[in-house]
Backbone:
């Protein structure tokens, strides 16, 4: 009888230990790193912290660039909230600048832009708020509901200093499925590196 009781206690204790381990493993944080070969040469060093809860998950990524000469430069940070991190980021040269597209917060994308010597970087996040407060968007008089979900922004293309952003937005207070979409064109200012909205493509 005592042996059976002892075995039951061992089984229960093992099960509880396994449950606690799986819980800690599932909800993080988990730390990892990756190196992504760059088309311009060198590698992008990515140090990642993964966290999850019952609602969603987040990848926080810190980027560094290791050049062909072995020197390492601090780039900045990105966040992938509720979506997978594909580990496919590339530094894109644009005249005197280098541009890195990454994730922003809550279904947005952003770019990290630095001078070609990797000495100074700025971040610009394409949020619904920044889009809808731009004079070009206001002048277009597009019916949208700011701060209604779901809404999201994504960088579709970066080419010759031009950034194309897809903006999806809500158009009905009642119906979740009523959404609009526009493709917005930004240009990187050659002096400051800051993206500036230049036009909205017709849908």
Residues:
């Amino acid at each position: 009888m005592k042996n059976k009781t002892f075995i039951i206690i061992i089984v229960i204790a093992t099960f509880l230990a396994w449950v606690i381990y799986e819980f800690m493993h599932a909800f993080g944080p988990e730390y990892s790193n990756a190196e992504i070969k760059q088309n311009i040469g060198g590698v992008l060093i990515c140090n990642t912290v993964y966290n999850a809860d019952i609602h969603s998950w987040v990848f926080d990524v810190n980027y560094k660039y290791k050049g062909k000469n072995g020197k390492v430069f601090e780039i900045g940070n990105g966040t992938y909230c509720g979506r997978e991190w594909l580990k496919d980021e590339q530094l894109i040269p644009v005249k005197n600048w280098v541009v890195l597209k990454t994730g922003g917060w809550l279904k947005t994308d952003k770019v990290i832009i630095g001078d070609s010597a990797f000495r100074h970087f700025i971040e610009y996040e394409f949020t619904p708020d920044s889009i809808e407060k731009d004079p070009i968007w206001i002048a277009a008089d597009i019916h949208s509901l700011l701060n209604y979900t779901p809404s999201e922004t994504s960088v579709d293309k970066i080419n010759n200093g031009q950034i194309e952003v897809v903006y999806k937005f809500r158009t009905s207070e009642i119906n979740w499925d009523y959404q609009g979409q526009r493709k917005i064109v930004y240009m990187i200012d050659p002096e400051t590196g800051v993206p500036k909205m230049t036009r909205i493509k017709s849908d």
